[in-house]
Amino acid sequence: MSGAVEARLAELGLLLPEVVPPLAAYQPAVHSGAYVYTSGQLPMVDGRLPVTGKVGAEVTAEEAKELARVCALNALAAVKSVTGDLDRIARVVKVLGFVASATDFTGQPGVLNGASELLGEVLGERGVHARSAVGVAVLPLDAPVEVEIQVELTS
Fold it and tell me: Percent of the chain scored above 70 by pLDDT?
């Protein structure tokens, strides 16, 4: 099933990927009441990380921003996996992003703009959200970025 949101993705030249399989004992997304909570989404493309390492060292901030876009796209796929239809998104409530950072890197908000901007491009006003951008020492599989989202659904 595809609707207006997936049509918008196509207009942007984006394809909703398959849901990234869990790396451990969790679900990619959980639907509870009016909300869907995604697990942290890595920037997996075709089952692999295109880049690994710390942002500000092996990975540039611009590369990491693009990877955050991939994370957000993977998060939308996870939402669809439990709702069946992205048009049910009333709004993105919260985005939480983690950036594996070199010790002197302080540009985490700019990196996470990749995810925030993608959600805005795809969902318009429904993509406007609260957000936290956190620098961390390391992420699973040495990923540079990880993003999770919380969305509210229409009834």
Answer: 99
Across the strands, what pairs with 74?
none
Closest Cα to residue 154, out of 131, 132, 115, 123? Answer: 123
DSSP E strands in the chain: the ranges are: 29-32, 35-38, 89-100, 130-136, 145-153
Q: What six digits make up the tokens of 98?
A: 């983690």
Question: Is residue 91 within 8 Å of residue 152, measured between CB atoms?
Answer: yes
Write out pLDDT tens, residues 18-62. Answer: 998 888 999 999 999 999 999 999 999 999 999 999 999 999 999
Q: What is the pTM of this model?
A: 0.96
Cα Rg, the chain, nearest whole Å:
15
- Token pair for 136: 């961390």
Q: Is 98 exposed, middle or buried (0-12, 13-18, 19+ CB in 10 A)?
A: buried
In a 3-state reduction of DSSP, which class is residue 131? Answer: strand
**Within 13 Å, how many C-alpha atoms sit on residue 36's CB side?**
27
Give which of 36, 146, 38 is closest to 97, Cα–Cα. Answer: 146
**Angle (nearest 5°) at CA 67 between 141 and 86:** 105
